Amino acid sequence: MHLITLVQPVYALIQHKLYLLAGLLILALAYWTHAYLTCPFRTQKIPGPFLGKFTNAYRWYHVMRHTWHRDLMDLHKKYGPIVWIAPDEVSVSDPTLRNVIYGFQNHKKDFTFFKKSPSYEAGSINQDFSFIFEQDPEKARLGKYHMSHFYSERGLFNLEENFDKAVEELIEGLDKHHARTGAPCKMVDWTEFFALDLVAQITADQSAGFCLAGKDINDTAYGARVIIRAVGVLTPMPWVLSVTSRAIRQNFLLRFLINLYRNLLLLPTFTFDTGMEDLKALKEKNPKHLLAKFYNAQSRMREHYPHGNQAEGTTIQIFNLIAGALGVVPHCQVRLIQELAAHPEVVQKIREELATTNNTLNFEDFLRYNNRQNKYPILESAVREAVRLTPAASFPLSRKVPPSGCQLHQYNIPPGYNVSMASYQVNYDEGYFGPDVAEFRPERWLGDHPTEMLDGEKRSMKNYLEAGWLTFGAGGRVCIGRNLAMFMMLKFTAALVREFDIQVVKQPVEYYTLMTEMLGMEALLTRRCAV
Ligand code: HEM
């Protein structure tokens, strides 16, 4: 009887769609208002945009306008270094607080360590270890233990031959498709082709042929972009995450993922169910390349991921590599080309540096081992300056406040809430980087900083600047691919300025979803005679 009394009005509500809609809206408003009224940020009067305090829809709207990275900068200009941006999150813009949030694990472990926030679940699509999206710090540490050596400078040094093969194909492709024809070169496409060719080279010692073909074979890069953007759209919406599962997300993205692995590994019939034998054969053929390392790393971590499988566990590492090499590096590279085209004096200096090593960039002339000197300080600084100005992995690095809570300026953030910093507002902090923060000035990375290190040693500018920026994240979850990113950009840029004169005929436009993409830039390339 009671049940019927309850069910009848609900049924009536469902019958009238308008009432149902109004009911849902009232419920949502009641939920948001309750969350707002009980939020400790309110009692402490943390400033922020009114709508952002109420609902995640505010942040999502700005993501969908593809301007969130710049909007966040504006919010900080308006409200100060701590801004309440979403019902359970504050955004922080202060390089001196970087180490509070992104520190290393210490003996107090779970009590003080800021884990990646639950929003990282958006990028988890199978039951295996996915480096970027793993929230458990212990498992991430284990991943780093098994993988960091082959992403180290030394580890990559062993694959220099593969870098050079990818560079050769890049030059051949650019020459054939642009320099000789005079057709404008779509720079972001070419930086992506190079990334795909390079990944195929270092993963399985083979040419995937993107630069030679001068096109996105089978929409491989397009598919990877769809996946990365989909993660960006999902990340600011916690309720979507609670109603989708990894399996749903994987199925939605499956065809793009499989297409990616097929075209990179040159395994045209690859599937997760049937592909393990092919993967094994490929990794056995190339024991020194990354596919073999990925396979070994996932086997060692298997006991922690009992619901996963070897084919997915191995290939998801390729996806992580692609997320960095294809999702991020090309956009930093486009910024660098844009700046070099506008600063011929820097190009001249880079050419002079390259002339000292036979016009070729060699890793051994860059790495500071055996007391060798870096022979490319301007080129290195130009790359650093570009990744500072366009830190393309610009999504807020959201972290869950640990049981210890945390103090950010005058505010006390209780455990369980989220705090985040994003690279754009940190990297453009005038207090830290100086009033010329928005200018491309590679020389800011050279020489010494007036302050000293703790042990009384001189502090280099590089050390000072890297301690403040957030381009590669920081602390225990710092980017594992930062050496690879640097090497990719060094090799690409060295080859480009050696071989071509570049004239930008169309400027890039920033487009944020998860990464800040630099879309639309076109350049005319003229082959240089004097090499
Ligand atoms: C210029 C290029 C790159 C930039 C700006 C960049 C930036 C970042 C940032 C900001 C993070 C921290 C994410 C967080 O804290 O949530 C990160 C993490 C990571 N990056 Fe990169 N990245 C770049 C290139 C690469 C490349 C080429 C790889 C290829 C291996 C890579 C692999 C990773 C991985 C695996 C992580 C997760 C590390 C962890 O959570 O412990 N990145 N990257």
UniProtKB/TrEMBL annotation:
InterPro entries, alphabetized: Cyt_P450, Cyt_P450_CS, Cyt_P450_E_grp-IV, Cyt_P450_sf, Cytochrome_P450_monoxygenase
A single GO molecular function term of this UniProt record: oxidoreductase activity, acting on paired donors, with incorporation or reduction of molecular oxygen
Organism lineage string: Eukaryota, Fungi, Dikarya, Ascomycota, Pezizomycotina
Native source species: Choiromyces venosus 120613-1
Alphabetic keyword roster: Heme, Iron, Membrane, Metal-binding, Monooxygenase, Oxidoreductase, Transmembrane, Transmembrane helix
Family: Belongs to the cytochrome P450 family.
Cofactor(s) needed for function: heme
Protein name as it appears in the record: Cytochrome P450
Pfam families reported for this sequence: p450
Record-annotated membrane-spanning stretches: 18-37
Binding locations of heme: 479
UniProt keyword Protease present: no
